[in-house]
């Protein structure tokens, strides 16, 4: 298994999806649903797009764990990477979320599945920082280089540098924070819309880092081990070209294959030379998800990668396809540590 590219993912099938009004103020990538389109129609289209992503990943040989969500109070639950990350060695992190109506996206049943099917030793919970107004929205706020152990983070109120440093101390990463803004001077709300780090290739909108010295440092750090760095334009970022993720799948013959998962819109924005550079090490898997992208995130945001060792499977079981719901009013506390499931 690649240190950078997980072979399993968690997806949330959000049946009540809609662009979240609580996140619109600072998410310049967010848009409203077409005028006259009902909430029901928007949600139905989003579910179909999520199913298409799950099917494309399964066809690529990625193990996909899908969880249903029918809660109308969780419009952004399709983006689990903001509250959850997993790490080699059996550690899971849970993060503090900026928007109060996103904080109950955290789910005990997801954690129970991870503990049941994978080797989980420790769950580190940072969500208790929310009452202090301190936030770090997971692998949206950070783009992690698991090979060189670097955490890249664009500063924003969704990516507090103090908790970034705390995460890096706890998990053994080097923090690399920087400012990133669009052409209008608006700060980038999440790092993973401007940057993607794969094993042998990275994509990043360096032009959106105004400090020239810091821009150079980021580029050098990304390429220090021979990784190819593809520079994205702001226009490509607005098409979600930076919101991609490398995964490790399998061919029907069982041979390992690396894929770069992104949206069809993102792929269409890439130049032929950029596509060729990606395809030196990865096969691009692109899925059309225009409805989900209305919420200001794309394929990367939808995927919580599983970097954990799998437990031996005793007999047939597909827990990920039929996970029993846990009463969120009386959640099981993972590893004896409290996990906040509500605002």
UniProtKB/TrEMBL annotation:
Source domain of life: Bacteria
**A Pfam family in this protein?**
DDAH_eukar
Cited NCBIfam families: citrull_CtlX (NF046062)
- Mind telling me what this protein is named? Amidinotransferase
Q: Which organism is it from?
A: Nocardioides daedukensis
């Amino acid at each position: 298994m690649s240190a950078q590219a997980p072979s399993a993912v968690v997806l949330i099938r959000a049946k009540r999806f809609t662009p979240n009004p609580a996140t619109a103020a600072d998410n310049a990538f967010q848009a409203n649903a077409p005028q006259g389109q009902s909430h029901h129609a928007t949600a139905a289209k989003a579910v179909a797009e999520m199913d298409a992503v799950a099917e494309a990943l399964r066809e690529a040989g990625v193990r996909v764990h899908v969880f249903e969500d029918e809660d109308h109070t969780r419009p952004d639950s399709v983006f689990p990477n903001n509250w959850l990350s997993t790490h080699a060695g059996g550690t899971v992190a849970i993060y503090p979320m900026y928007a109060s109506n996103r904080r109950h996206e955290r789910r005990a049943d997801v954690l129970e599945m991870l503990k049941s099917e994978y080797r989980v030793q420790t769950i580190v919970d940072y969500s208790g920082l929310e009452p202090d107004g301190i936030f770090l929205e997971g692998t949206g706020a950070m783009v992690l280089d698991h090979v060189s152990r670097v955490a890249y983070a664009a500063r924003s109120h969704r990516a507090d540098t103090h908790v970034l440093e705390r995460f890096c101390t706890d998990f053994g990463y080097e923090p690399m924070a920087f400012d990133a803004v669009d052409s209008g001077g608006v700060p980038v709300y999440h790092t993973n819309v401007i940057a993607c780090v794969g094993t042998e290739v990275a994509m990043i909108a360096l032009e959106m880092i105004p400090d020239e010295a810091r821009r150079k440092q980021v580029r050098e750090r990304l390429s220090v081990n021979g990784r190819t760095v593809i520079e994205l334009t702001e226009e490509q970022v607005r098409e979600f070209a930076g919101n991609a993720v490398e995964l490790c799948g399998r061919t029907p013959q069982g041979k390992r294959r690396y894929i770069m998962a992104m949206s069809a819109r993102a792929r269409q924005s890439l130049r032929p030379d950029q596509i060729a550079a990606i395809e030196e090490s990865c096969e691009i898997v692109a899925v059309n998800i225009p409805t989900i992208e209305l919420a200001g995130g794309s394929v990367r945001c939808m995927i919580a990668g599983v970097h954990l060792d799998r437990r031996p499977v005793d007999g047939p079981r597909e827990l990920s396809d039929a996970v029993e719901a846990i009463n969120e009013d009386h959640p099981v506390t993972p590893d004896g540590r409290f996990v906040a499931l509500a605002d």
